[in-house]
Amino acid sequence: MSRRGVLVAGGAGYIGSHTTVELIEAGYEVIVVDNFSNSDASSLEGVAKITGVKPIFVEADCCDKEAMRKVFEEYDFDSVIHFAAFKAVGESVAEPLKYYRNNLLSFVNILELMVEYGRHNVVFSSSATVYGDADVLPVTELTPRKPATSPYGNTKQMSEDILRDMTTATETLNGIALRYFNPIGAHPSAQIGELPRGVPNNLVPYITQTAAGIRECLSIFGGDYPTPDGSCLRDYIDVVDLAKAHVVAINRMVEGRSKSRYEVFNIGTGSPVSVFELVRGFEQANNLKLNYKVAARRAGDVTAVWADTTLANEELGWRAERELCDTLRSAWEWEKNVRRIK
Ligand code: UD1
Q1: What are the C-alpha distances in Å from 20 to residues 28, 31, 98, 248?
Q2: Whose C-alpha lies nearest to ligand 1, atom 25?
Q3: CA of 77 to the centre of ligand 1 (A)
């Protein structure tokens, strides 16, 4: 089995496309599977422009096991990164089965096929959401997970458990769950970036769309939190730094350096940033003024969460490198490129 082959499920999406770039640049051969449910083919064209390499692409739904079986039959890879999941917290509350079916079935299919076809290494896209409203900050990987407050968060916890149990039950599987904090920004080339459909749920796409004139005004959800400036604190991680964390996780497993067959790492910067600070940072980085107002709190938001990244720093040899202002500049460059704004 080729140690240089990596199947990237959901590789046309936001984090998947950036990771595909980093894998190609690290010398891996990437096979992207995506059903374009929340992405489109332009991201793969962007990957090709950046790297000069067109990744192998199969249009398929990871929930379709027979379609996935064909991918395992046809292509030579020993590692899989599983990005193929829905991620809108509010939608998951309204349509839980959509989330349980898609996020869990896709992962179960992939793990079953990995066992059947003797493929070894898997990285799972987990989330800081597994910590919920943590009692002690920053959170380490040993911080107890809180009961999930949304079906989306529940699928992340359940998928972590499925992966842990499978690495225990088999002799052949190695797993790493990466708990992402808040991924933001875009590739410095502005060829790939985040392209949410409809009204963005997340802060930075809402900011860039407001700056582009697509949204009238950004609502800052809550100015009365018990934080220094009254807005929520998050750990905003640059998407290229995050993509690189996947490469080091794959390298670790491929080179047999894992300390145990299932490992978990926080992937963040380690620094809390408030919503007000982020908005100001965006204005300063891009030399513009944003139309915003303070609005009511959003149901389900935690006051603060940020990462202790010691484990990723020491064990993976990974750390966030890009400065927040550069990340916020890249987010705007990408939005301008997409909207053809000069
Ligand atoms: C959420 C999820 C996280 C998921 C991520 C990606 C939770 C608690 N968090 O992160 O698991 O991986 O989305 O989909 O389930 N904000 C505004 N105005 C806006 C949008 C956001 O003020 O228009 C604020 C929010 O209140 C929050 C911060 O910006 O304080 C970040 O929000 P967002 O980008 O949506 O990410 P999270 O809610 O932290």
Answers
A1: 9, 9, 26, 13
A2: 221
A3: 34
Q: Are 309 and 269 in contact (CB under 8 A)?
A: yes
Would you state the structure tokens that stand for residue 311, as one six-digit string?
Answer: 């484990």
The DSSP secondary structure of 4-37, one letter per residue, reads TEEEEETTTSHHHHHHHHHHHHTT-EEEEEE--S
Q: 221 alpha carbon to ligand 1 midpoint, in Å?
A: 10
Helix or strand or coil: residue 58? strand
Q: Would you call 152 a catalytic residue per the annotation?
A: yes
- Is residue 113 within 8 A of residue 68, CB to CB? The reply is yes
DSSP 261-285: SEEEEEES-S--EEHHHHHHHHHHH
**164 neighbors 175 (Cβ within 8 angstroms):** yes
The Cα–Cα gap between 100 and 89 comes to 12
Cα 178 versus chain centre, distance? 9
Number of Cβ atoms within 10 Å of the Cβ of 109: 21
- Sorted by sequence, the CB contacts under 8 Å of residue 201 that are 6+ apart come out as 88, 89, 90
Cα separation, 60 vs 62, in Å, equals 6
Give the length of the chain: 342
Asked if residue 87 has its Cβ within 6 Å of ligand 1, the reply is yes
- Could you give phi then psi for residue 287, rounded to 5 degrees? 55, 50
Decide: 221 in ligand 1 pocket, CB within 6 A: yes
In tens, the pLDDT along 242-281 reads 999 999 999 999 999 999 999 999 999 999 999 999 999 9
280-324, pLDDT tens digit by residue? 999 999 999 999 999 999 999 999 999 999 999 999 999 999 999
Tell me the torsion sign for CA atoms 328, 269, 100, 302.
negative
